[in-house]
Design brief:
Mean pLDDT: 95
Distance between the termini: 38 Å
Order of helices and strands: HEHHEHEHEHEHEEEHHHEEHEEEH
Helix content: 40-55%
CATH superfamily of the largest domain: Type I PLP-dependent aspartate aminotransferase-like (Major domain)
CATH topology of the largest domain: Aspartate Aminotransferase, domain 2
Largest sheet: 7 strands, mixed
Radius of gyration: 21 Å
Number of domains: 2
Number of helices: 12
Strand content: 5-15%
């Protein structure tokens, strides 16, 4: 068996694309909404303090942790203190930190699931089991394993857990005494600006992951873990072994940005723009590729649906013609699929129309080829 570490399929696609490629592949936010002016003003204030370039606490600077804690308390109805927040170098780092701090050898995921999480679990040698129905989850979950769940605008499926399903999952967790890793990367990206309470509020032995990547800017690589203080303490050794602490400057920059600006006013603008882009992409699919079956999402950054052909082979054909999207096979543990994920946030309206129109032609040619 090879010890070679396999790269993420999506990162490979991104590396293979160039300025001529219309990409619907990565989960990239719209750079037009990066708050450049506000961050520039904040950086001037931060640079007046030499501590911004100094080492800082492994758990993260207090001011930023307080601001994140207040978001949980005031926006998510989930009372939280700064001691219950750990700042991470992007939300992705949280997988590594949490799994290194726990003894569990098995992770349970809903199928399909986020490729970045699957990659992190595999690289740490964890056994991964998947489920599609809660009845299957009940049979799999126990005190020695971990449940990984995305409760809002799941990546890739775009599904959202209802309040009833959140309570049912919390009940299953309580009976099994398992551990929950709840990924909240998209929880604020609701087109109507409505947010649901995390499952983590209903189950104490949980780690809720958050990120500024989708709501401020991904290049800052700022994420966090929300967990009870005792569990946060247990994560610190793993965090320190990786990078001592997350960038002090980036933390102070975002803290200052949050002091000077209304984050949720900014998120409202993003949601409005993303809703319109999603509607436009949906309209293009219905016009140019009516055979692509999908349900319009209520938030997030993707349209997820199914073709009448193998989406992996279609994706390879499309990439030759400079159109990139993600075939759903990469989101499953071991399952062929005709499903596919399309990101609507990063492309322009012109690119969305051109890309879907071109993909229609590629699909027609590919269908003729396999039927001949």
């Amino acid at each position: 068996m090879s010890n070679k570490i396999k790269r993420s399929y999506i990162r490979e696609i991104l590396d293979a694309t160039d300025e001529d490629t219309i990409s619907f592949a990565g989960g990239l936010p719209d750079k037009e909404f990066f708050p450049l002016n506000q961050l520039s003003k904040a950086s001037k204030k931060v640079f007046k303090n030499a501590d911004c370039l100094q080492y800082s606490k492994s758990q993260g600077i207090e001011g930023l942790r307080e601001k994140i804690a207040s978001i949980y308390t005031n926006k998510l109805g989930f009372k939280t203190s700064k001691e219950e927040i750990l700042i991470t170098t992007g939300s992705q780092q949280a997988f590594d930190i949490i799994l290194k701090s726990l003894d569990s050898k098995q992770v349970i995921v809903e199928s399909p699931s986020y490729i970045g999480a699957l990659g992190a679990f595999k690289i740490l040698g964890k056994e991964i089991k998947d489920f599609k129905k809660l009845s299957e989850l009940e049979k799999l979950i126990n005190s020695s394993n971990i449940l990984y769940a995305i409760s809002d605008y799941q990546n890739p499926s775009t599904n959202v857990y209802s309040n009833k399903k959140r309570k049912n999952i919390a009940s299953i967790l309580n009976k099994s005494n398992s551990t929950l890793i709840e990924d909240g990367a998209y929880c604020f990206l609701n087109f109507k600006n409505k947010v649901k309470t995390p499952i983590s509020k209903l189950y104490e032995n949980s780690y809720h992951l958050g990120s500024f990547s989708k709501i401020v800017a991904p290049g800052l690589r700022l994420g966090w873990v929300r967990a009870k203080a005792e569990n946060i303490d247990n994560l610190l050794a793993a965090k320190e072994s990786l990078d001592l602490h997350t960038s002090t400057f980036n933390q102070m920059l975002v803290e200052q940005y949050l002091k000077d600006n209304d984050l949720f006013e900014h998120i409202t603008k993003i949601n409005d723009a993303y809703s319109k882009k999603m509607e436009y992409m949906a309209k293009c699919f219905k016009k140019y590729i009516p055979s692509f079956k999908f349900k319009k999402p209520e938030g997030g950054m993707f349209i997820y649906g199914s073709f009448d052909v193998d989406s992996m082979l279609l994706a390879k054909e499309a990439l030759k013609e400079n159109i990139a999207f993600v075939p759903a096979e990469v989101f499953y543990l071991d399952e062929k699929s005709n499903e596919a994920r399309f990101n609507f946030t990063n492309a322009t309206y012109k690119e969305i129309k051109m890309g879907i129109k071109k993909l229609s032609s590629i699909l027609d040619n590919y269908t003729k080829k396999i039927n001949s």
